[in-house]
Amino acid sequence: MTIEQVVILAEKPSQAKAYAEAFQVARKTKHYIELKPSPVLPHGATITWGIGHLVELKQPADYKAEWKRWSLSQLPMIPDRYEFRVGKGKWEQFQEVKRLFKEASLLINACDVDREGSNIFYSILKQTGVRNKPVQRLWINSLEAEEIRKGFSNLRDNRKDLLLYQEAQTRQISDWLVGMNASRLYTMLLKLKGYNETMSIGRVQSPTVFMIYQRQLEIEDFKPAKFYELTGEFASQQGKYQGKANIKKDKREEVEELLKQAGVQENTPLNGIVKDVKKVKKSIRPPKLHSLSTLQAKANKMWKYSPAKVLEIAQSLYEKKLISYPRSDCQYITDAEFNYLSGGLSGYQQLIGQRFEATHTKPQRRYVDGSKVEEHYAIIPTKTIPTSAKLNGLSLQEKNLYLEVVRTTISMFHHDYLYEETTIITDVVGIEFKTTGKIELVRGFQELWPAPAKKKEEPYLPKVLKNESVEAILHIHEGTTQPPKPYTEGQLIQMMKTCGKIIEDSGESDILKEVEGLGTEATRAGIIETIKKHGYIDVAKNIVSITDKGRILCETLEGSLLASPSMTAKWENYLRKIGNNTGTQEAFLNSVKKFLHHLIETTPDKVEKTTIQIPQESLCKEKIDIVCPLCHKGKLVSRKNFYGCSQYKEGCSLIISKRVASKMISPNQIKELCQNGITKEIKGFKTKKGTTFSAKLKLEQGKVTFVFN
Known about the structure:
The protein is of the alpha+beta class. About 35% of the residues lie in helices and about 20% in strands.
């Protein structure tokens, strides 16, 4: 009888190590770990691993030598068949995996439990050339020893796994096709316009940059406007309070006219009457459980951690067996998780130093709903409750994130936050003023979090009675509308997730909501890091802004499907069909090829007609043929940070800075300034305080000044 040889493939060494710790180890090597026989694995097993992506798609030059050179004439680059290669520096590990796969009688896919984990396993298996071996799937949400053993005792067949692999590989190939072709297309077309930068285009990264660009335009185009409201100060027998009328006008005169019609004046003592007093008890329920994106948003708001850093910390806590699978997009758990959390409630309370009597002892559908748990449940603490020593051994970032997960999870057992809201309606000469105040009754779950250092106090409201007379003084309050705020990195994650709200087509919007927007929980942080790396956005003090390069990308892509989340909606809709066995890879790739042919055919004319502002430092080298407006003898010469006159040695002192009030001035604007003495209105200047403004530039006796309309 042949002894079964089981080979387990983990996604990476740390995952393999966690699996091995659930069993007894017979031998460890550089490339694999051998396990002793156990009740779960009667003949033992060998665990090996990938190192990230052991296998990757080949580069264009691997298919054809002529594809190495970036050229419009070579587009589109569409291989007859898609080929893969072993990643650089990973050959030795791949060879060991290949040998073990050949010797195995059973293979177990123990990579991450998502479509990319399926892709990693099967792309490696295919590259090894090993065929006709039975494959089973490990599907777990925690790296605790008990959960690992339970998972290996209940392995799944690989039917769904194979479909997820087809879905993931289709996405991978399609992203390769769009990225390789569109990046070269736009780079070469922009080069013809004088822009000498490499542009990286992607199905997900490009619409993400475009939404940041749109927010920046909203901020730059915003025109502050004054508005006028009517407020009142009231004195009752029990004390003073303030209120506001439901009046908001663009001109002060309009509010003054209302007062005139009522026969009263501003800042003059008047009689008022309390028309109504309502007291309503209200409650706020504990927050929903964390998915990765909500955890990223919360950590960014509280500690300014970037989304990529949060994923890194969460992955570390997962590998330390303290939290469940970190790339989850789910905010629900099943009864099984609720039961172990309920049983360990006292231990979790001790971790945060907050004891409370559980109010909700039975599962609530807000948190516990097995029908909404698919591959993964919400991010929650595992059964493993760390000792004080282990907790204190965590880094500050790990401890912050772990305790946030603990607090949010156990808050579902706590009391709701209760408060009483009082609304007073005060009538003065027929004008109603509304006053609201809040009194905290029960802090409930909010006591699990440290109180904020600065908390805006709710206004104290004196006890007033209906029909009570009060003294009143009315004021006209002047306010100014505020521009939209730029995104923080945490808000960017949420914006990517909820971008379905901004799509006009209801069908596409519904799809984006269903697939939860651009990217996945696992990839959004990486996408943000990618667009940072490509120089499309800057992040300073947690505030995201578009760069000159990002602006040029968006100006060029505007109106294209590549600038819209709609493309992701269409793609994800069909990719899901592949994962559900109702669509095929062939049909999808054919549609992508048609899209590429259309893109390559229509884009050159569109880019040619697009007016873009190219920063001087990114221009291809070219001669500047502008006569000096000061001496009228020399020509303008481009220096690193300014334009000067070629006659400077003969005494011409002209200097025009390339950057004015934080705004790069384009060569066309310089030409206009020198030839006409004044430019058209230019947007995007900034004051020292960071406020944006628009102005014309004027050249007088060699000096540049602002002209405001």
